[in-house]
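Study this one:
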Amino acid sequence: MVYEDESLFAIRDIHPQAPVHLLIIPRKHVAKITDLSGSDDKLVGRMIFLAKKLAANEKIEDGFRLVLNNGNQAGQSVFHIHLHLLGGRKMTWPPG
């Protein structure tokens, strides 16, 4: 556990794709991005601001990537939304 509060927690990915690979996960269950409702806007905003804070803690604030996958075609394998924070190496484009 890297971080936790009443609505979010963050852990290290068990299959990291970069030297720093954290998952920011809401406690509220939402299976996919397309299942979000208008009332979830603050939750998603908090996820992004937490990513900013964790990037600073991990000393990768000069370059990192945030990824949200939606559905099988995008590579979503866990059907509970989560934000990937990746950094610590040069990111290439396109990503996959």
